[in-house]
Amino acid sequence: MFGKEFQRKYALTDQGIRNTKQGTIWTVIVNLIVMGGMGILYLMMSKYMAVLTDGKGLPKASAFIILVLVFLALSIISHMQQYRATYGLVYGEVKAVRIGLAERLRKLPLGYFGKRDLADLTETIMGDVNRLEHVWSHCLGYLYGSYISTAVIAFSMLMYDWRMALACLWGVPVAFALLFGSRKLTKHNSEITKAAGVQVSDGIQETLENIREIRATNQEDRFLKALDDKIDYHEKTMLKGELHTGIFVNAASVIMRLGVATTILTGTSLILSGQIDFMVLFMFLLAITRVYAPFDQALALIAEMFMSQVSASRLMEIYEAKTAEGADTFKPSGHDIVFENVGFAYDDERVLHGVSFTAKEGEVTALVGPSGSGKSTCAKLAARLWDISEGSIKVGGIDISTIDPEVLLTDYSMVFQDVVLFDDTVMENIRLGRHGATDEEVLTAAAAANCDEFVRKLPQGYATLIGENGAKLSGGERQRISIARALLKDAPIVLLDEATASLDVENETKVQDALSRLLSGKTVLVIAHRMRTVEAADKIVVLADGRVVEEGSPDDLLARKNGIFMRMTQLQSASAGWSIKKGE
Q1: Best-predicted range by mean pLDDT among 102-111, 112-121, 214-223, 339-348?
Q2: How far is the CA of 250 from the CAs of 86, 179, 238, 246, 254, in angstroms?
């Protein structure tokens, strides 16, 4: 019953399966004990009927009082255990699932996040887990326990009188057959509703992230109209899905309840023909209330379980995604980065073709080329932020695909054009470079990155909160914090991706000064569009259409009259001259 397919269908861990089994067992016990309470009531009624029909004296109340007290004690204990098994244990399971998801996401390559919508991932981690939590706690153990206890009760009823049993129970399988028959429609509606909900989340996130651009271009009405349309569509899909589910659930409930009518009709007919007495009918009427009671809620739970399978499949997509793994030790012989016939593709789009070059330790190697030539991709592959499709990338003679990315990245510092900062203090944003660094070490790195100049002007200095993604700082100030992080980490390999591209001349000079301290003696891989940024590089690798087309020192490449690097340099010089003339 609770095999691997069941586990996958509801995205349960091994502990979750054990929890479901416990919940099922205690639900069976609770249902049977409650049925025992019906038995006590039947026994009392039988004794009372004997008084009325045979003139016997009233039975002693002490025996019934003892039975009732035992029933109450067992009922309280079993309900407490059922609550612990179906709720208490599940809450721990939800915690484990969320931690497991975070751990899984931590091990996934960045390429996975490039393919998935972040709003969709957030909805999976928060919304889908919440939906599954309700299924794990309210549905699985309760429903499967009801199956088993009802089977036990049904067997007993059939043994006692099969005619009355069939009259009572025929509606249960018919009702569930109707619900299971609607499973595909329910799941399909749930998928549509889920997709519509993600579109709403995307629309809200997009609007908030681009609010300045929207206002600057007077596009508020258009964006709000598009967002309203998405919300309206989501609402319609929800209503449609709930309507379909409600129709089937209520129809199943009505069909099941028809069993009460058939029980009365069958019992009355058998009484009139003298085949049973009134107490048999009374017993089956008591039993039918306990047969139907667990399934009153179960009918709605089954519909919820069908819908939850969509959420479970989304979780399983994360669990089944290929992780980037490898050895937990990295001891290279030096830090030369060697690309050997490297090929790479984003899905079916080929980006790199047989790329080979070496970035030597102690030298600055620059990657240049037209937009879309594969420069940034090479830098990301060099740090195993993605895994290559073919060829190999080695650092100090070791293939980086054999090393765990987290272990590998201890030897890398990265400074990108788009700096990511957290809504925390300047001190803590720099300390991200090396966890556990002392305040003195952070301040030393900050001074080397020329951060002191602007931090002294902040209200609380290094204790100043800088806002979401450094909203209270300028581009140059944010970039210098990023460099301070890299200085604090002091890794032997440094990757620079357009680190000064968006800065003005004054800030670029300050950042270049900070970078000179960072790069000393390291293996440096620089990506730049400005040719003057790489004119002091030891080696330049020119990429075009995902291939290495030129390679050499800046002087060597400038000496090639028809070379791509020479042409790019001339074009940028002409563009700069035009800009100056326009300014004049």
Answers
A1: 339-348
A2: 26, 10, 18, 6, 6
User: Strands 412-416 and 398-399: what pairing?
Assistant: unpaired
User: Are the CB atoms for 559 and 572 separated by under 8 Å?
Assistant: no
Report strand pairing: 364-368 vs 539-544.
parallel
Cα 27 → chain centroid:
31
Q: Are 470 and 425 in contact (CB under 8 A)?
A: no
Q: Using an 8 Å Cβ cutoff, are 522 and 544 in contact? A: no
State whether residue 543 is helix, strand or coil: strand
Residue 36: name the closest of 88, 87, 74, 82 by CA.
74
Q: Show the CA angle centred on residue 62, arms to residues 56 and 64, nearest 5°.
A: 75
What is the residue whose two structure tokens read 């995902």?
A: 546
Contacts of 403 (CB under 8 A, 6+ apart): 326, 327, 330, 384
Confidence (pTM)? 0.66
Domains of the chain: 9-320 (1.20.1560.10), 337-418+485-583 (3.40.50.300)
According to DSSP, the residues that pair with 547 across neighbouring strands are 544
- 551 close to 541: Cβ distance less than 8 angstroms: yes
By the 8 A CB rule, do 430 and 452 touch? no
- What are 36-56's pLDDT values in tens digits? 888 888 787 777 776 666 666
- Of 8, 9, 30, 23, nearest to 91 by C-alpha is 23
Nearest to 475 by CA among 496, 504, 447: 504
In sequence order, the β-bridge partners of residue 494 are 413, 524
Q: What's the pLDDT tens digit per position in 215-269?
A: 778 888 888 888 888 888 888 888 888 788 778 888 888 888 888 899 999 999 9
Going 105 to 107 to 110 to 116, the CA torsion angle's sign is negative
- Cβ burial of 59 (10 Å; 0-12, 13-18, 19+) is middle
